[in-house]
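Is calcium ion placement plausible here? Inputs below.
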Amino acid sequence: MRGTETADPFGRGSVRRRQLLIDTDPGVDDAIALLVAAASPEVELLAVTTVFGNVPVQQTTENALRILALAGADDIPVAAGAQRPLVHPQPHRAARVHGANGLGGVELPLAVRSAEATPAVRFLAELLHGSSLPVTVCSIGPLTNIALLLGTDPGAAARIERLVVMGGEYGSGDVEPAAEFNVWSDPEAAQRVLRSGLPITVVGLDVTRATAMNAAAIARIGASGPVGSAAAEMLAHHLDHYMRVQGGRGVVIHDALAVLEAVIPGVLGTVARKVTVDCGHGPGRGRTWVDRRTGPAPGLQDDAQSAGGAVPRQGVPVQVAETVDLPRALTEIEARLRSYGAR
Ligand code: BDR
Ligand code: CA
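Reply from A.M.:
I modeled the complex. Tokens:
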């Protein structure tokens, strides 16, 4: 959606659009997230940048182009980014979960255009420098592009008004017992981003796991029109995986929840916490440690007393999503996916 103001098809009058950039590795839930963003009157989706992750970056880029074409959003530029993590290449991809093509085996029609000639990190930097309005960035894949932006053009990164990240786990992991896929895919990048001091909201597995779309919702989306039908086909592949492998209640659409928070700030309840990423090479690699303690750090009590107050803990706090209004989140996501049928 282009332009800064629009009438709201969800009946909330005229809305000022937030500028949004999405960095992604589609991925079924990324595809759903992109469809949600492109149908959201609250945002102007400025561009999509891609990164390796669920499948290699050539495929995630092709998928992003095809998803935007499906959404009728062929005017939104797509720029291809990192093909590997910052430091340690990882052999594992998520094809077992997302299918070999990343979209659950669903063959979306070919896009008529190609990605931008400018690589993603430079593209992001140019957009951020050039924007006269505040920009939200939503990262729903490994954080490599964002870490590279911080390293190569910190001035551009500093222009990010808000960075919403789908990443981390604050209970138990998915790809490993202790690690979530996006952070585990490039822990060094995640650490660099989470320590950057940018205004970050992290949306981890604790809240995303609750966001399960059941078979009835998928059927309603599928019946809404051609876009809904393609979305439902991708979700159905995922439903099979979640029921068989994870014994779940429906498809967990991690990335769509993060994008919803970027589109409607406050849909998630967050608390300021310090988060550290395990960048070691043991079984904890990629784990996100969240500090839920309050007050002065143990062991620093004497210093605190002699300093006459609390000693600040190390690190920069980020907003950690801890609660989700589930009925609202699921209703909003479903409504946006079904809204294509009414166009
Ligand atoms: C994250 O991992 C990917 O497989 C999903 O697309 C999501 O971004 C969830 O852990
Ligand atoms: Ca993703």
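Short version: The longest helix spans residues 226-245.
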